[in-house]
Batch of 2 targets.
Target 1
Amino acid sequence: MADLVVERPEGLYCPPGEFYIDPWRPVARAVITHAHSDHARFGHAHYLAAKPAEGVLRARLGDIHLQTLAYGEAITHHGVKVSLHPAGHVLGSAQVRLEHGGQVWVASGDYKVAPDRTCAPFEPVRCDVFITESTFGLPIYRWCPDDEVFAEINEWWARNVAHSRASVVACYSFGKAQRLLAGIDPSIGPIITHGVVDPLNRAYREEGVALPETRHVTEVKDKADLKRALVVCPPRAVASTWLRRFGADAQTGFASGWMQVRGNRRRGGYDRGFVLSDHADWPGLLQAIAATGAQRVIVTHGSSNAMVRYLREQGLQAGAFTTEYGDDVVEADAQPEEGA
Ligand SMILES: [Zn+2]
Ligand SMILES: [Zn+2]
């Protein structure tokens, strides 16, 4: 039986459907798993994405030709039945289910299985072939429940308030920033967001995700508030003069799955590292793969060699696709691109 998804220079391609999934070069028809910049790129003639992704996609890509599907809703294109299912990664993130000629393939995009207040939970979808990410596909990656991480952030913030110094948390502006805002305790002090985070917050709020009140730094009238604030910004801002307005004693933290690796925090020059990821950890990846019932698994990005080896040892047919994905690699380098 012919494969439903193959590699092409433009990206992952469905030959019978004549469309791409998260292509990295401009194409006629693109199915987009989510609005992170390595998956949703400029220049496609036609985009298909999950309905809750519309606002964040437009916030990032502007006026694109976009068709949306509710989660679980199916359309048939050139005989391929296509439906989108929650991936639990960020608002609007979807796994793409393809059915054709008696085969079912699912392309996961990025995903996590842990709960997240800001997006629909990951839905296991049965399939013959599962195309999975593997960003944190090594046994060393095991996340704590996120409420423990939020408690750690709250404690740090409250202690900084007691010492009249700002708490600056760097994180990915789309997804991580909103999850952090929805998770922390807003009664501790004022919350200030960087301008790059604001349009994403707006899109989340318009989609009905509850976020605490946030202010732009220019809206803060009482300068004492700056010293009590939790400041949410991209890593780039921590390394810039933007940080100075919060005073020389501002404390800095970085929220990312990469903070689990010793040395990453210091390399980035942060006072604190908070292990908070929007990707599945090692047990999460294995749990998601097992739940699909797939006998064949194709790994797209991350620690693909280790994952492929492990899956083969478990008796599965496993391989890898070479892709240009990897938004969390950008996080690790602490050099996020504008708006990402
Ligand atoms: Zn992503
Ligand atoms: Zn990604």
Target 2
Amino acid sequence: MCGIFGVTNNKNAAKLAYVGLFTLQHRGQESAGMVADDNGALSHHGDMGLVNKVFTADVLDGLRGRSAIGHIRYSTTGSSHVKNAQPLFFNSCLGQLAVAHNGNLTNAARLRAELQKTGAIFQSTTDSEIIIHLMAKYRGKTLEDTIAKNLPRLEGSYAFLFMAPGKVIAARDPNGIRPLVLGKLGRSYILASETCAIDVVGGNALREIEPGEMVTIEGGRPGFRRFAKAAPYTRCIFEQVYFARPDSVIVGRTVQLARREIGAMLAREMKGIKADIVSGIPDSGTAYALGFAQESGIPYQTVFMRNHYTGRSFIQPDQALREFTARLKLAPIKDVIKGHSILLIDDSLVRGTTSRKIVKSLKRAGAKKVIMAIASPAVISPCYYGIDTPDKGELIANNLSTDKIRRYIGADELYYISLESLTAACGNNSDRRFCAGCFTGIYPTKIGRFGGSGG
Ligand code: SF4
């Protein structure tokens, strides 16, 4: 999972891109980068770390020009290196060119091997670089033709931003798995992974880039074309379940409202359940719990205090400090918990280790009973489209029955929402469908033997 943001035709392009990337920081904390276009001369900066660390005032001043594209990257095992920080930047046979990618190419290993056999030398280990090598090899009349010719060779998920002197080009995979939204701010066009980034810079979201569609913004105007027939729309349902910010709009309503509706659906499925209070694991669990409380009549209470300042760096140093991590991140509010039966909602249950710690923490704080309710179905299969889920063997629901999972995490009862209720709450209909591969093992595209290390 990553975030991308682009802005054109604005004298403060780099600063707006900084604000946009900062707003999307929840989508990735490993590295950040930006490329700016100053009258046809592209400049680049990227580094490891959070947006506000990577872009100092001096760095932003150096990124001159009226257009900028940026990227923030989520850490994936084995690829944590500055050479994978995006946008990737090239002086190529196509001229200066930058690319920022959110997604994962499932045929990356095969394409990379084919390209290497014919002489391509890769500068990173990310699959995002493959598109540039394909473009250098199979060219069309214009840059847009070249992109349109090569995108159909890619399998998997992608939302791309390209920058060449004088233009920004965006494209979304034919299934629309990863998000990409077009917005406007005065005379500037904006492209972003989520609408919240467009809102924060003061713009208005216009519409999503359609599956299989690309847009070129040049001379202050957008030009649209298709590079592939749209396959059935299968956007990632985990955006609503966990990743997207609550103020972002997906399929016509905010993620916050969708999460409340999921909570209400869960309450309908668990009709008759008895508990003193309902609560959620912050942050996403809170909206689910509010929806559940409203539907069921069980009062909502906050049972955990979340510390928002525990960066990833805190948990790295040594074992002694790691011991504190769970309590440091989520501290139980004892008076609210003691002597009560608590219905606790979490967004997902993947390995079970976090739920186990959380249930233990509630019991230690005096909870009489802990009922765990999960706002997504059991995760039984990995994600091949850029979401960092573990291998099948580590997915607890793939190895244990629901009752055994309940015993493992130490809960008194355990429930999952059904896939039907989840997709209905997220706005499923014949035109708006979702990928649910990690819950069903059925994926909307071909899955190669090896996935790439995506952007
Ligand atoms: S497999 Fe799961 S996490 Fe991956 S894109 Fe599909 S719904 Fe999203």
